[in-house]
Amino acid sequence: MKSKEITNYIIFGTELRYLQDVKEGWRVHGRDFILDNIDRFFAKLKEFDLPVTIRASYELRKQKEKLAKTNSNYRLSSNDADELSGIMDDVRNTLMAEAEGNVAFIVTDKRIDVNKLLSNMPSLMAPNIFDSLPDIAAYDFIEAGKCIAFERPTAAAFHLMRGTEAVLRHFYCSIVKRSRVEILWKQMVDHLRSRQKPPPRPLLNNLDNIRHSFRNPTQHPDKIYDIQEVQDLFGLCIDVINRMIVEIKKARTTEEKKKKALKGKSKA
Prior knowledge:
- The longest helix is centred in the last third of the chain and has 41 residues, at 227-267.
- This protein is an all-alpha fold.
- The protein contains 11 helices and no strands.
- The chain has 2 domains: 6-99, Four Helix Bundle (Hemerythrin (Met), subunit A) (Up-down Bundle); 114-267, Nucleotidyltransferases  domain 2 (Four Helix Bundle (Hemerythrin (Met), subunit A), Up-down Bundle), CATH 1.20.120.330.
Protein backbone atom coordinates (compact mmCIF):
# COMPACT_ATOMS: atom_id res chain seq x y z
CA MET A 1 0.00 0.00 0.00
CA LYS A 2 1.36 3.39 -1.01
CA SER A 3 0.01 6.75 0.06
CA LYS A 4 0.00 9.41 -2.64
CA GLU A 5 -1.45 12.89 -2.47
CA ILE A 6 -3.77 13.70 -5.36
CA THR A 7 -1.83 16.93 -5.93
CA ASN A 8 1.16 14.81 -7.01
CA TYR A 9 -0.85 13.46 -9.94
CA ILE A 10 -2.01 16.95 -10.88
CA ILE A 11 1.58 18.23 -10.85
CA PHE A 12 2.64 15.21 -12.94
CA GLY A 13 0.02 16.05 -15.56
CA THR A 14 1.07 19.70 -15.54
CA GLU A 15 4.71 18.76 -16.18
CA LEU A 16 3.69 16.47 -19.05
CA ARG A 17 1.55 19.22 -20.61
CA TYR A 18 4.32 21.79 -20.18
CA LEU A 19 6.80 19.61 -22.09
CA GLN A 20 4.27 18.86 -24.82
CA ASP A 21 3.49 22.55 -25.32
CA VAL A 22 7.08 23.86 -25.51
CA LYS A 23 7.67 26.75 -27.88
CA GLU A 24 10.61 28.44 -29.53
CA GLY A 25 12.32 30.85 -27.13
CA TRP A 26 11.49 29.00 -23.89
CA ARG A 27 14.34 28.92 -21.39
CA VAL A 28 16.20 25.63 -20.98
CA HIS A 29 18.18 26.09 -17.77
CA GLY A 30 17.03 27.19 -14.35
CA ARG A 31 14.35 26.35 -11.86
CA ASP A 32 10.96 25.40 -13.38
CA PHE A 33 12.25 25.55 -16.95
CA ILE A 34 12.82 22.80 -19.54
CA LEU A 35 15.55 20.66 -17.94
CA ASP A 36 14.05 21.03 -14.47
CA ASN A 37 10.66 19.83 -15.75
CA ILE A 38 12.24 16.86 -17.52
CA ASP A 39 13.99 15.83 -14.31
CA ARG A 40 10.78 16.12 -12.31
CA PHE A 41 8.88 14.18 -14.98
CA PHE A 42 11.33 11.27 -14.72
CA ALA A 43 11.14 11.42 -10.91
CA LYS A 44 7.35 11.14 -11.07
CA LEU A 45 7.54 8.18 -13.46
CA LYS A 46 9.69 6.40 -10.88
CA GLU A 47 7.51 7.50 -7.95
CA PHE A 48 4.34 6.24 -9.64
CA ASP A 49 6.02 2.97 -10.65
CA LEU A 50 5.64 3.30 -14.43
CA PRO A 51 8.55 1.18 -15.75
CA VAL A 52 7.21 0.80 -19.30
CA THR A 53 7.03 4.56 -19.79
CA ILE A 54 10.47 4.97 -18.23
CA ARG A 55 11.93 2.53 -20.76
CA ALA A 56 10.02 4.19 -23.62
CA SER A 57 11.45 7.61 -22.70
CA TYR A 58 14.94 6.96 -24.12
CA GLU A 59 14.49 9.70 -26.75
CA LEU A 60 13.58 12.15 -23.99
CA ARG A 61 16.80 11.23 -22.17
CA LYS A 62 18.82 11.86 -25.32
CA GLN A 63 17.09 15.23 -25.80
CA LYS A 64 17.83 16.16 -22.20
CA GLU A 65 21.50 15.26 -22.60
CA LYS A 66 21.71 17.41 -25.73
CA LEU A 67 20.04 20.41 -24.10
CA ALA A 68 22.12 20.05 -20.93
CA LYS A 69 25.27 20.80 -22.98
CA THR A 70 24.00 24.24 -23.99
CA ASN A 71 25.01 27.41 -22.17
CA SER A 72 23.03 28.68 -19.16
CA ASN A 73 21.19 31.35 -21.17
CA TYR A 74 20.15 29.04 -23.99
CA ARG A 75 16.58 29.17 -25.26
CA LEU A 76 14.82 26.59 -27.41
CA SER A 77 15.17 26.90 -31.15
CA SER A 78 12.19 26.15 -33.38
CA ASN A 79 13.73 22.76 -34.19
CA ASP A 80 14.36 22.01 -30.47
CA ALA A 81 10.76 22.78 -29.63
CA ASP A 82 9.37 20.61 -32.44
CA GLU A 83 11.61 17.67 -31.48
CA LEU A 84 10.78 17.85 -27.77
CA SER A 85 7.06 18.26 -28.39
CA GLY A 86 7.04 15.26 -30.73
CA ILE A 87 8.97 13.13 -28.23
CA MET A 88 6.49 13.99 -25.48
CA ASP A 89 3.53 13.08 -27.71
CA ASP A 90 5.03 9.60 -28.10
CA VAL A 91 5.80 9.34 -24.40
CA ARG A 92 2.24 10.37 -23.58
CA ASN A 93 0.81 7.58 -25.75
CA THR A 94 2.89 4.99 -23.87
CA LEU A 95 2.00 6.56 -20.53
CA MET A 96 -1.73 6.41 -21.25
CA ALA A 97 -1.49 2.77 -22.31
CA GLU A 98 0.44 1.82 -19.16
CA ALA A 99 -1.82 3.88 -16.89
CA GLU A 100 -4.85 1.86 -17.99
CA GLY A 101 -3.44 -1.07 -16.04
CA ASN A 102 -2.98 0.91 -12.82
CA VAL A 103 -5.95 1.49 -10.51
CA ALA A 104 -6.07 4.03 -7.68
CA PHE A 105 -8.48 3.56 -4.78
CA ILE A 106 -9.87 6.62 -3.00
CA VAL A 107 -10.55 6.36 0.73
CA THR A 108 -14.03 7.70 1.48
CA ASP A 109 -14.96 9.75 4.55
CA LYS A 110 -15.97 7.95 7.72
CA ARG A 111 -17.45 9.18 11.00
CA ILE A 112 -13.93 8.79 12.36
CA ASP A 113 -11.27 10.98 10.75
CA VAL A 114 -9.69 8.88 7.96
CA ASN A 115 -6.27 10.55 8.16
CA LYS A 116 -6.09 9.73 11.87
CA LEU A 117 -7.22 6.15 11.24
CA LEU A 118 -4.44 5.71 8.70
CA SER A 119 -1.53 7.53 10.29
CA ASN A 120 -2.31 8.95 13.72
CA MET A 121 -4.03 6.39 15.92
CA PRO A 122 -2.70 8.00 19.15
CA SER A 123 -4.80 11.10 18.44
CA LEU A 124 -8.00 9.01 18.57
CA MET A 125 -7.30 8.05 22.17
CA ALA A 126 -7.05 10.24 25.24
CA PRO A 127 -3.70 12.07 25.63
CA ASN A 128 -0.73 9.86 26.58
CA ILE A 129 -2.75 6.64 26.34
CA PHE A 130 -1.37 5.07 23.17
CA ASP A 131 2.25 5.16 24.36
CA SER A 132 1.22 3.19 27.45
CA LEU A 133 -0.27 0.28 25.49
CA PRO A 134 1.43 -3.11 25.22
CA ASP A 135 3.17 -3.48 21.85
CA ILE A 136 0.70 -6.06 20.54
CA ALA A 137 -2.25 -3.85 21.45
CA ALA A 138 -0.68 -0.84 19.74
CA TYR A 139 -0.15 -2.96 16.64
CA ASP A 140 -3.74 -4.22 16.63
CA PHE A 141 -5.24 -0.75 16.97
CA ILE A 142 -3.08 0.61 14.17
CA GLU A 143 -4.22 -2.28 11.97
CA ALA A 144 -7.85 -1.79 13.03
CA GLY A 145 -7.63 1.86 11.98
CA LYS A 146 -6.40 0.90 8.52
CA CYS A 147 -9.11 -1.75 8.18
CA ILE A 148 -11.83 0.77 9.05
CA ALA A 149 -10.38 3.35 6.64
CA PHE A 150 -10.30 0.79 3.81
CA GLU A 151 -13.72 -0.59 4.73
CA ARG A 152 -12.73 -4.04 5.93
CA PRO A 153 -15.01 -3.89 9.00
CA THR A 154 -14.96 -7.56 10.02
CA ALA A 155 -11.15 -7.62 9.95
CA ALA A 156 -11.18 -4.39 11.97
CA ALA A 157 -13.40 -6.02 14.60
CA PHE A 158 -10.94 -8.90 15.03
CA HIS A 159 -8.07 -6.44 15.60
CA LEU A 160 -10.18 -4.38 18.01
CA MET A 161 -11.02 -7.44 20.09
CA ARG A 162 -7.44 -8.67 20.13
CA GLY A 163 -6.11 -5.25 21.07
CA THR A 164 -8.70 -4.71 23.80
CA GLU A 165 -8.04 -8.13 25.33
CA ALA A 166 -4.29 -7.44 25.29
CA VAL A 167 -4.88 -4.22 27.24
CA LEU A 168 -7.22 -6.06 29.63
CA ARG A 169 -4.48 -8.61 30.39
CA HIS A 170 -2.01 -5.78 30.95
CA PHE A 171 -4.55 -4.06 33.21
CA TYR A 172 -5.29 -7.24 35.14
CA CYS A 173 -1.61 -8.03 35.72
CA SER A 174 -0.96 -4.47 36.86
CA ILE A 175 -3.82 -4.51 39.36
CA VAL A 176 -3.37 -8.01 40.82
CA LYS A 177 0.45 -7.84 40.63
CA ARG A 178 1.06 -10.75 38.33
CA SER A 179 3.65 -10.87 35.58
CA ARG A 180 1.66 -13.08 33.20
CA VAL A 181 -1.80 -14.66 33.03
CA GLU A 182 -3.44 -17.22 30.77
CA ILE A 183 -6.99 -16.89 32.10
CA LEU A 184 -9.92 -15.76 29.94
CA TRP A 185 -11.62 -12.38 29.59
CA LYS A 186 -14.59 -13.26 31.81
CA GLN A 187 -12.41 -14.72 34.54
CA MET A 188 -10.23 -11.62 34.65
CA VAL A 189 -13.20 -9.28 34.94
CA ASP A 190 -14.91 -11.49 37.55
CA HIS A 191 -11.73 -11.59 39.63
CA LEU A 192 -11.31 -7.82 39.40
CA ARG A 193 -14.95 -7.34 40.41
CA SER A 194 -14.50 -9.56 43.50
CA ARG A 195 -11.54 -7.65 44.88
CA GLN A 196 -11.84 -5.68 48.09
CA LYS A 197 -11.22 -2.49 46.12
CA PRO A 198 -12.42 -3.29 42.61
CA PRO A 199 -11.90 -1.01 39.59
CA PRO A 200 -14.79 1.38 38.82
CA ARG A 201 -18.05 -0.41 38.05
CA PRO A 202 -18.68 1.40 34.72
CA LEU A 203 -15.35 0.09 33.42
CA LEU A 204 -16.07 -3.50 34.45
CA ASN A 205 -19.62 -3.31 33.11
CA ASN A 206 -18.35 -2.00 29.77
CA LEU A 207 -15.77 -4.79 29.58
CA ASP A 208 -18.51 -7.36 30.24
CA ASN A 209 -20.68 -5.78 27.56
CA ILE A 210 -17.90 -5.87 24.96
CA ARG A 211 -17.12 -9.50 25.78
CA HIS A 212 -20.73 -10.63 25.65
CA SER A 213 -21.98 -8.48 22.76
CA PHE A 214 -18.91 -8.34 20.52
CA ARG A 215 -15.87 -10.39 21.51
CA ASN A 216 -17.69 -13.72 21.71
CA PRO A 217 -19.82 -13.18 18.56
CA THR A 218 -16.75 -11.99 16.64
CA GLN A 219 -15.17 -15.40 17.16
CA HIS A 220 -18.16 -17.05 15.48
CA PRO A 221 -17.56 -17.68 11.77
CA ASP A 222 -21.02 -16.37 10.79
CA LYS A 223 -20.53 -12.88 12.28
CA ILE A 224 -20.01 -10.13 9.71
CA TYR A 225 -19.67 -6.44 10.61
CA ASP A 226 -20.68 -3.44 8.54
CA ILE A 227 -18.72 -0.20 8.52
CA GLN A 228 -21.13 1.63 10.84
CA GLU A 229 -21.20 -1.15 13.42
CA VAL A 230 -17.42 -1.43 13.61
CA GLN A 231 -17.05 2.33 14.11
CA ASP A 232 -19.41 2.05 17.07
CA LEU A 233 -17.32 -0.83 18.39
CA PHE A 234 -14.18 1.25 17.94
CA GLY A 235 -15.65 3.90 20.23
CA LEU A 236 -16.55 1.34 22.90
CA CYS A 237 -13.05 -0.17 22.83
CA ILE A 238 -11.32 3.22 23.00
CA ASP A 239 -13.45 4.11 26.03
CA VAL A 240 -12.46 1.03 28.06
CA ILE A 241 -8.82 1.29 27.03
CA ASN A 242 -8.65 4.92 28.11
CA ARG A 243 -10.21 3.95 31.44
CA MET A 244 -7.91 0.94 32.00
CA ILE A 245 -4.72 2.88 31.31
CA VAL A 246 -5.87 5.70 33.61
CA GLU A 247 -6.54 3.15 36.39
CA ILE A 248 -3.09 1.61 35.90
CA LYS A 249 -1.49 5.04 36.23
CA LYS A 250 -3.53 5.77 39.35
CA ALA A 251 -2.48 2.45 40.90
CA ARG A 252 1.18 3.18 40.15
CA THR A 253 0.93 6.65 41.65
CA THR A 254 -0.66 5.24 44.81
CA GLU A 255 2.05 2.58 45.03
CA GLU A 256 4.80 5.18 44.68
CA LYS A 257 3.25 7.31 47.44
CA LYS A 258 3.12 4.29 49.76
CA LYS A 259 6.76 3.50 49.08
CA LYS A 260 7.77 7.11 49.79
CA ALA A 261 5.76 7.08 53.00
CA LEU A 262 7.43 3.85 54.13
CA LYS A 263 10.87 5.29 53.37
CA GLY A 264 10.00 8.36 55.41
CA LYS A 265 8.95 6.24 58.38
CA SER A 266 12.07 4.09 58.23
CA LYS A 267 14.29 7.19 58.28
CA ALA A 268 12.38 8.58 61.24
